[in-house]
């Protein structure tokens, strides 16, 4: 919980952040207006906003945002849904972890881009292919976070629960899962950002809509304002999803405060 002094500082910090963003945009606009930089290489913010307004009126902009967001959410949900139970199991079983470690060591270094050729062969240029890229790029890191969160639980808590007569499922439900959830949520916030990297990689290669497609399409037609717009929308969308994720985290982990 924030104390009174922290709550009083928040408006001041927000003002400082807002001023810094406005100053950056004004400097950027001025550099372009003075023709210190060719607009072909770096368009001014006014051109980017004009492009955004035009695409918004056409209805195409929201379609690209929703397409990318849907792919991220489906792939991220699938990866975390499998990583949580498997990670808790591996984190509590030395033998299972020893058996699975070689597989995880093989999957962990592979970037999402390396899966694109195989995914195109398996699924073609489909939505399933985009979901699979996000899943394959985030599953191994998510699994590692869950394993480490489970292994970091104080063994005294588990022994105390067992000494008090708790069964295996009760220990899992009342000790292991609650104790590991804060660290799992912290890790998954990082994984959520990684999911956007994965989906943009997939959309840059094979897609007909999405923010990655928007960037690549702008590049093909030398529309650098479209490229910059796509980049800016990725950042804004990630910030929005991060805020939503924090709200969910605060509700789920309300007991920890």
Automatic annotation (TrEMBL):
What Gene3D superfamilies does this protein's entry cite? MetI-like
Instruction: Show the InterPro entries listed in the entry.
Output: MetI-like, MetI-like_sf
Q: Which residues form a coiled coil?
A: none
Chain ranges of the ABC transmembrane type-1 domain: 65-245
Q: Give the chief site where it resides.
A: membrane
Tell me what topology the record assigns in the membrane: Multi-pass membrane protein
Looking at the Swiss-Prot or TrEMBL record, what is one Pfam family this protein matches? BPD_transp_1
Where is this gene product found? Cell membrane
A single Gene Ontology CC term: plasma membrane
Which key words tag this protein in UniProt? Cell membrane, Membrane, Transmembrane, Transmembrane helix, Transport
| Single Gene Ontology BP annotation | cellular response to sulfur starvation
Q: Which SUPFAM superfamilies match?
A: MetI-like
Q: Where are the transmembrane segments?
A: 72-94, 106-125, 131-147, 190-207, 227-248
Q: Family assignment?
A: Belongs to the binding-protein-dependent transport system permease family.
List the protein's name.
Aliphatic sulfonates transport permease protein SsuC
| Originating organism | Achromobacter insolitus
